[in-house]
From TrEMBL:
It holds the Pfam family SIS. It comes from the Bacteria. PROSITE patterns: SIS. Keywords: Repeat. GO terms for biological process: carbohydrate derivative metabolic process. This is Glucosamine-6-phosphate deaminase. InterPro entries: GlmS/AgaS_SIS, GlmS/FrlB_SIS, SIS_dom, SIS_dom_sf.
Length: 351
C-alpha cells in the first residue's frame, strides 16, 4: 500500500525559493563570462535603440532594463506592446534594433511571436529565460539562461531577481563594465534576508487588515514598486496599484488617505532623493507609509525596512527581497496560500 505524502504547508515553496536567492546570485555571477560573450556580439552590431518584450513579473524586469539601457548605454529604449504584432500584424522596420525578450518560462506564445517577427524584420534578438531549450530561446539569435532552477511557487521570486541580475550583467558588459558593482550582491542578499526578518514581521502585523495599498518608487526603483504591487495583489488579494513617484502627485494622491497603506521603495541615489518630497506630501495626507530601502531612514514613514547600501543601479535586486517576504507573510496572515493563488497558473499563455 502506497503511503500518502503529507500535503505541503501553505507558502512552503515560496519560503524556500526566497531563501535560495543569495546562492542563485552567486551562481549567476560565476557565469558572467557567458553573458559577457553575448554582450560582445550585441556591441559588435551597434544597435541604434532597444526594445524589451515581456509579460507579468518579467515586464517589471524589462522596465528595470529600460532604465539601465537609457542611463548606462544612453540609447533610447521602449517596452513592446505584443498585441501590435499578434493582434494587429504591424511590421515596422527593426533593422539595427536590439530586441530583448524576457520570459521565465520561455513559453509565452505572444513573446515567441514577437521575437520571431522582430528577427525577420532585422532586429538582433536576445532571449533572457529560466528554461534552456525553450521555444523562446530557440527563436532568438542569442540567449541568456538566468539559471535560477525550477520555481514551484506560482508567485515568481528567485526567477524575478535573477532576471534583474542577468539583465544588469548584460547591459553593464555592453557598457564596458566588469560587473564589479554586482559582485557583493550574494553577501548583501544574505544580510538583507537575515536583518529584515523583524521589520518585515512588524509590517505584516501592521498591514494584515489593510484593504488597499499604493506602491511607489523613482528611477530604477520604479520596477520594484511595480513588482511589489503585483506580488501583493496575486498572493494576498490586496487592491494594490503602483505609481512612479513622479506621477503620484499628478492625481492619484487624491485617493490616498488614512485608510491607505503606502509601500515606498527608496534606496540611496538620485531616485530615492527625488522621492522624499513626494512622501512628505503623502505623509501629510495621513497615509500609513512603509519605507523599504537603504534610504528608508531618510523619508517620512511610520514603518521602515532598512537595507544595506549598494550602487543605485543594482539596488532593485536587493529591494525586492523583503517585499517578497512581506507578500508571503501577508498572504499567510490573511489565510491564503501564496504557492497556489486562486485562479493563477505558473505559465500564462496570451496572444
Amino acid at each position: 500500500m502506497t503511503q500518502q505524502q503529507p500535503a505541503a504547508a501553505p507558502g512552503q515553496h515560496m519560503t524556500a525559493e526566497i531563501a535560495e536567492q543569495p546562492e542563485v546570485f552567486a551562481a549567476l555571477l560565476a557565469r558572467r563570462p557567458e553573458i559577457a560573450a553575448v554582450a560582445e556580439r550585441v556591441t559588435a552590431r551597434r544597435p541604434r535603440f532597444a526594445l524589451l518584450a515581456a509579460r507579468g513579473s518579467s515586464d517589471h524586469a524589462a522596465l528595470y532594463a529600460k532604465y539601465l539601457i537609457e542611463v548606462l548605454l544612453e540609447l533610447p529604449a521602449g517596452l513592446v506592446s505584443p498585441s501590435t504584432t499578434t493582434l494587429y500584424g504591424a511590421e515596422p522596420d527593426l533593422t539595427d534594433v536590439l530586441l530583448v525578450s524576457v520570459s521565465q518560462s520561455g513559453g509565452s506564445p505572444d513573446l515567441l511571436e514577437v521575437t520571431e517577427s522582430a528577427r525577420r524584420r532585422g532586429a538582433l534578438t536576445v532571449a533572457v529565460t529560466n528554461t534552456p531549450g525553450s521555444p523562446l530561446e530557440r527563436a532568438a539569435e542569442l540567449s541568456i539562461d538566468i539559471g535560477a532552477g525550477r520555481e514551484q511557487a506560482v508567485a515568481a521570486t528567485k526567477t524575478y531577481s535573477a532576471s534583474l541580475l542577468a539583465l544588469y550583467l548584460l547591459i553593464d558588459a555592453i557598457h564596458g563594465g566588469s560587473g564589479a558593482r554586482a559582485a557583493s550582491l550574494p553577501e548583501l542578499a544574505r544580510s538583507t534576508l537575515d536583518s529584515s526578518v523583524d521589520a518585515v514581521e512588524e509590517a505584516v502585523q501592521r498591514y494584515r487588515f489593510v484593504s488597499r495599498m499604493v506602491t511607489t518608487g523613482r528611477g530604477y526603483s520604479s520596477a520594484t514598486a511595480a513588482e511589489a504591487a503585483l506580488k501583493l495583489a496575486e498572493t494576498s488579494y490586496l487592491s494594490a496599484r503602483a505609481y512612479s513617484g513622479a506621477d503620484l502627485l499628478h492625481g492619484p494622491v487624491a485617493a490616498v488617505d488614512e485608510q491607505t497603506g503606502v509601500l515606498a521603495v527608496c534606496s540611496e541615489g538620485r531616485g530615492g532623493a527625488a522621492l522624499r518630497e513626494v512622501l512628505d506630501v503623502v505623509h501629510e495626507r495621513g497615509a500609513d507609509i512603509c519605507a523599504v530601502g537603504s534610504a528608508a531612514g531618510k523619508v517620512s514613514a511610520a514603518q521602515r525596512i532598512d537595507l544595506p547600501a549598494c550602487a543605485e543601479e543594482v539596488a532593485p535586486v536587493l529591494e525586492i527581497l523583503p517585499v517578497q517576504r512581506l507578500s508571503l507573510g501577508l498572504a499567510l496572515a490573511r489565510g491564503g496560500d501564496p504557492d497556489h493563488p486562486r485562479g493563477l497558473n505558473k505559465i500564462t499563455r496570451t496572444r
